[in-house]
Amino acid sequence: xxxxxxxxxxxxxxxxxxxxxxxxxxxxxxxxxxxxxxxxxxxxxxxxxxxxxxxxxxxxxxxxxxxxxxxxxxxxxxxxxxxxxxxxxxxxxxxxxxxxxxxxxxxxxxxxxxxxxxxxxxxxxxxxxxxxxxxxxxxxxxxxxxxxxxxxxxxxxxxxxxxxxx
Length: 166
Fold this sequence. Notes:
Order of helices and strands: HEEEEEHEEEH
Largest sheet: 6 strands, mixed
Structural class: alpha/beta
Helix content: 25-40%
Radius of gyration: 23 Å
CATH superfamily of the largest domain: Outer membrane lipoprotein wza domain like
């Protein structure tokens, strides 16, 4: 009887550990993803000249966006539903390919959207990729979550081994 109850406890612990590791919010009876999967979004009005830009990282709806050619970074982030609470808005990176002397040059522009002036938005260019990284503390929290999952599984396995030895 002890073995069966230990195995059931181990299965329950591993299930919750797997959910936590996959980045899912779980409550009784439901599992919902923290972010939306990347997708293609079309936000321009009919007849507008458009461009494609990419939004990666800590946005609510990251993905590839087809936007009006005069779209700025704040508008794009608004189309994506805004930043996640874990987003580091002080170091948003715009990666852009520009021509210099007939060569493609990769440029990285770091923008502080935490303190941006509404009168001075950065206009995006075709092919731009905007990268929003998580804050340092959210990465630390994720690391502790992974460590606690590994510790929980290790303790459960050691308990199972101790019970089966008896």
